[in-house]
Design brief:
single chain, 306 residues, alpha/beta, Rossmann fold, UDP-galactose 4-epimerase, domain 1, 2 domains, 7-stranded parallel beta sheet, two-stranded parallel sheet, globular
């Protein structure tokens, strides 16, 4: 199949591109390189430098004629969305709608959207959250992700555009950007390698559901081959506090002198997040394979070797 990946030079998108090429699919990548890196793009993939809000996107779709689109391109930071919700909505809602409209215009069979289980549910009422949990996001980032899901539902009901919204937990692994705000594992690893003390927002007892990136590659491939339409969590059903995460990374690094520093808590930051993967297991036969300890070890060593 011909697969077009938006944000394919980024952390998740480039790992998915590698996985698809291993399965002998054709891959084309659209990325404006604002977050992604050109060195992440596989040699075998076609590449177009383009903002997802641009009308140029339509000429790319016309030329490539993709069967499936995997939409990863986004403004990535919850913090940035709180500081500038208009900019966040411009990229994540208007840009996302432009991608969906291009899919409809050029008869794409399916779109797989990188949504956010870590933000669309807001402060959870029960744990782990399944897909029936109320969606009450407390950040503009989460609002934008949920809005894009609603547009996908509209295009499905009105035009028959098939989709799966993958509601990701906190994805980590090789190629994550340690200079952004989206990846605490990358940020902590980078600080420890430099001999610096990582800063933890607030008391560090906020929890997240951490998913290794190769497990995400697997779920994308399975989603692409499935007839399912709708939203689906991608999590591990395990909560890990930021303090626990720091301690595992410190142990993995062998740098016992590194200490955590506590800063102020951040506006729009959820207290707890934990996602059920029951639907993904039932529909796709998917479940997370990588343990957090082993995944953090692989990731830390990758950063150390860069």
């Amino acid at each position: 199949m011909k697969i077009l990946i938006t944000g394919g030079a980024g952390f998740i998108g480039s790992n998915v591109a590698d996985g698809l090429l291993e399965k002998k699919h054709e891959v084309a990548i659209v990325d404006d390189l604002s977050n992604g890196k050109k060195e992440n793009i596989p040699e075998e993939a076609g590449f177009y430098r383009c903002d997802i809000r641009s009308k140029k996107l339509y000429s790319i779709f016309k030329a490539e004629k993709p069967d499936v689109v995997i939409h990863n391109a986004a403004q990535l930071s919850v913090r940035v969305s709180v500081e500038d919700p208009l900019m966040d909505a411009d990229i994540n809602v208007i840009g996302g709608l432009n991608v969906i409209q291009a899919c409809h215009t050029y008869n794409v069979k399916k779109i797989i959207f990188a949504s956010s289980g870590g933000t669309v549910y807001g402060e959870q009422k029960y744990f782990p959250a399944d897909e029936e949990h109320p969606t009450r996001p407390i950040s503009p980032y989460g609002v934008a992700k949920l809005t894009t899901e609603n547009y996908l539902y509209y295009f499905y009901k009105t035009y028959g555009l098939n989709y799966i919204s993958l509601r990701y937990g906190n994805i980590y692994g090789p190629r994550q950007d340690p200079y952004g705000e989206a990846g605490v594992v990358a940020i902590f690893s980078s600080k420890i390698i430099k001999g610096e003390n990582p800063t933890i927002n607030g008391d560090g007892l906020q929890t997240r559901d951490y998913v290794y990136v190769r497990d995400v590659v697997d779920v994308n491939i399975r989603a692409m081959e499935s007839d399912f339409t709708g939203s689906m969590n991608v999590g591990t059903e395990k909560e890990t506090t930021v303090m626990e995460l720091f301690k595992i990374l410190r142990e993995v690094s062998g740098e016992s002198d590194v200490e955590e520093v506590h800063g102020p808590s951040r506006e729009g930051e959820q207290r707890r997040s934990q996602l059920s993967y029951g639907l993904a297991k039932k529909i796709l036969g998917w479940q997370p394979r990588m343990s957090l300890g082993e995944g953090l070890k692989i990731t830390y060593n990758w950063f150390k070797n860069q």
